[in-house]
Amino acid sequence: MSLFTLVARSQASAVFYPGNAFEAKCALPDGRLISLVYRSNYQAGFEVPLPTFFYVEAIGEAPNLKDASEAFYGAALETTTVMAFVVNADLGHLEVELVFDCSPDKNEHEFRQTYVPNVPVLHVPGRPISPELVRDFFALVTDHPHRTRLQRAITQYGEALRRWTSGHGLVCLAHLYMGVEALTKACLWSHLQTTGMSQDQLGAAWNVDLKRLDSEVRRRLIFQEDDDCFKAARGVSDKFEHGYGDFLEMHEPAARVVVKVAAYLRKAIIGLSGADANLSAALLGHPYAEPRGPFRLIKHISGTLVGPANKLAAKDRSYPAFKWTSGVKEVSIDQGGRYAFAPEETLTAEFGEGVSLNARDFQVWDNQLVAPKD
What we know:
Layout: E1 2-10, E2 22-27, E3 33-43, E4 50-62, H1 65-87, E5 95-101, E6 111-113, H2 131-142, H3 147-162, H4 169-195, H5 199-206, H6 213-222, H7 227-242, H8 247-273, H9 277-284, E7 297-306, E8 321-333, E9 339-350, E10 356-366
C-alpha cells in the first residue's frame, strides 16, 4: 500500500470563512481510514479574501492511483452530501483535479491531473459553513443504527438542493419524496421503539391496515399531519415516477408544496438523527432554515430600441445585443459578520449605426425556488 493525496473542488453556495475548515476521519468499505480536510479557496486583492471555490483534500493508503481516485472520491462525496444537508445549501459537483502518490519513502510517485476550468467569480455566497455543526451532525449520522436509510434520505435531499432553482420544482419534489420513502422504515422503527408498540398494535391505534402503515407513517410522522401537502406531494411523485401524469399539470402542485416538503423532510431527518435540542435549533434556525440552491443571480436590462427594424443589429452581428461582462467589484464582511459584495457590470452596445436603447430598468434577482405567495 502507498500513501495518496486526492484534491477535488466545486463551486458552492456556502463557504468556509477565513480560518475555518472541517477535518474528519472516514472509513472506507474495506475498513481503511482516510483523512478528509474541507476548506474554501480565496483570492487576494479585495478588502477581505474573496472565496473562489470549495475544495476537499483526501489522504490515505491505497494500492494504486486508480483505487485512490475511486475510493477517496466516493468518501468525499458522501461527506460533502452530509455537509450540504447541515448548511442546507448546494455545495456543487466535486470534480477531481489531482491524485498523486505522496509516500515519503519513495522517489517515484504516480501522478494524475485533470483539467478543471477556473470559473470567474461573479457573486459571493454569504452562508457560512460551520465546522462545529458539521462535526456534530456527521458524528450522529456515522454512528446511527439506521445510517444507511438516513444517508439515502440525505442524498435525495442533496439532489434536490442541486436543482433548487426557479422552474425546477417538479424534479426537486421527486427527489424529496424519494427521500421521504427512504426514511419511512427508519421513522417507523424509531416510533415503535419510543412507544413500545408492535406494528400490529400501532396499526390498531391508528386504525389502519398494515398494508397502509408506511403511508400513514409518512402522513403522521414526516408530514406532521399536513394532509393537503402530503396528498399533493404523493400524487405528483406517483405520476412523475410512473410516467402517467401530464408534466404541465404537475408543475403547479409541485411548485405549491415543494418548499414545505423540503422543510418536513429535513426536520424529520434531524429528529431521527438523535440531535439534541441545541443542535436541532442551530440546524433549523438562521441562517440554515431556507434551502440554498446553486448561486446564480439573474440579471436583465429592458427598454425600447430606437431605429429601423432591418438595421437594429450591428453589421457583423445577427441580433441587437450588449456585449455583457460581469464580475465582483468589492467584497466585504458586514456588521453581522456575513460576506457581502458589490457586482461590476460592463455593457457595450452592439447595435446598428444610429440605433439606441431607451433603457427602462435593470433588474437582478436570486434564481431560487420559493414558496408561492397566497
